[in-house]
Amino acid sequence: MKHCCALSRVAGAFLLICAVSAAAEPYDDVRAAFVAGDLDTAETAIRALLAENPFDPDARLLEAEWLRQRGSLAEARARLVLLTEAFPSRPEPFNNLAAMAFDAGDLAAAESWLAKAVATDPAYRRVLENLDALRRARAASAYRELLPNAEADAAPAPLTTFDRFAVPGVCPAPDPTP
Asked: What phi and psi, each to the nearest 5 degrees, are found at residue 116?
């Protein structure tokens, strides 16, 4: 009997892992379209995901990224703000708002958004990496102001954005680096 229960638990865990893996596939199509620069395909896939479940936070996060990539920055920002209101305990939309502010050169706003992301999860690696990158960019900017004749360094690397919500305790945040 003990072995039967243990086997049942293992089978249940396997099914959960398979369900999580299968659930990622629709999002993978959108991510692949982003990588290929095919915003039309990404839009079609996002619209299908949202038609199936208009409240899917991952699809809504992808929609905000799609809007950002096509240049609709105000609309992308508005969607991300809505996600911060709907999911105030998740760092992903705060982080993505920080990345948008950083890209626009508004380092103070980027730091404010990252502070909110850190407040939701102080150990979230990507948010901490982005905070570190932001602080390096601010330090480089201050250095250039103090020494205007110093050689200009290359532009700082952009902050990394999220393309899905991580499920705490079930799966780690996706790592976009190969």
From this structure: -65, -40
What is the tens place of the pLDDT at every residue in 5-28? 433 343 333 333 333 444 457 788
DSSP string covering the chain: -HHHHHHHHHHHHHHHHHHHHHHHHHHHHHHHHHHHT-HHHHHHHHHHHHHH-TT-HHHHHHHHHHHHHTT-HHHHHHHHHHHHHH-TT-SHHHHHHHHHHHHTT-HHHHHHHHHHHHHH-TT-HHHHHHHHHHHHHHHHHHHHHH-TTSPPPPPPPPPPPPSS---TTTSPPP----
Distance CA 135, CA 9 (A): 46
The model's pTM is: 0.72
